[in-house]
Design a protein that fits this description.
By secondary structure, the chain is of the alpha/beta class. A hairpin with a 2-residue loop joins strand 2 and strand 3. The longest helix is centred in the C-terminal third of the chain and has 18 residues. It is globular.
Length: 251
């Protein structure tokens, strides 16, 4: 199985520093933010990883990460030509993935849990997608999964609902089969002019088979100044608790 990490966007919520630096290169603990997504994939033995970013920052990622050898992974790169949404960025991975299942991470999602048990279940899932959810106190900020109380299945995903019924947000941790690219090509841009990943996910719910799991540890969308500070705090607390350095480097 392969991994795809989206590290594009414009980082508007973290300006002014993101006027010159891609937010996924900002420090979270002792490493740049992008390292944590790579580490989570490496932990579950996913070593062939595609990083999708924009043309202005591609050289920075290559300078930092190279081919991934020092981290014990194999990195490839693709350019998202414009900030036209998460689904548009994911479409850049079509030829890289082929007909395989894969894990798709948004690089500003920093989280505690291992993906090992989730990926094991997805590998044994014949088709469809798996979404990783997290219970939050402010669900109106996210895409929220509506869960049928009888079947326990996701019935729909509502983007930033004003009066959410549930408080389980859809995190930036997704597992898809290759049909995701067909669904992306079927959707149309939203009022923001973007190809929304929520539209793709709702299409999966309507047309295919979707499962979900729920994170039990902490999870942060490190896309604001406050959440980036919190992510740093949690990472350093976790490192202190472990009492050792993370073995992210191959050497």
């Amino acid at each position: 199985m392969k991994g795809v990490i989206l590290a594009g966007g414009t980082g508007t919520r973290l300006r002014p520093v993101t006027n010159i630096v891609n937010k996924h290169l900002l420090p979270v603990g002792p490493f740049p933010m992008i390292y944590w997504s790579i580490l989570k994939l490496k932990e579950i033995k996913i070593e062939n990883i595609l990083i999708i970013t924009n043309k202005d920052h591609l050289s920075h990622f290559i300078q930092l990460l190279g081919d991934g050898k020092e981290l014990g992974v194999n990195l490839s790169y693709r350019i998202q030509s414009s900030a036209s949404g998460i689904a548009d960025g994911l479409l850049c991975a079509k030829t890289f993935i082929g007909t395989e299942k894969f894990v798709f991470l948004l690089a500003d999602n920093i989280f505690e849990d291992s993906l090992e048990s989730f990926i094991y279940k997805f590998e044994n899932q014949k088709q469809g997608a798996k979404f990783i959810l997290k219970e939050v106190s402010d669900p109106e900020r996210y895409g929220v999964a509506n869960i049928d109380r009888k079947s326990k299945k996701i019935s729909s995903i509502i983007e930033k609902p004003k009066n959410p019924i549930f408080n389980y947000c859809v995190t930036g941790i997704y597992m898809y089969d290759h049909h995701v690219f067909d669904y992306i090509e079927e959707i149309v841009p939203s009022s923001r002019g973007e190809l929304e990943i929520t539209s793709v996910n709702n299409m999966y719910i309507e047309k295919s088979f979707v499962t979900y799991d729920i994170l039990t540890g902490w999870w942060i969308d490190a896309g604001t100044h406050t959440s980036l500070f919190t992510a740093n705090k949690l990472i350093y607390e976790d490192l202190k608790k472990r009492g050792r350095k993370l073995g992210i480097y191959k050497r």
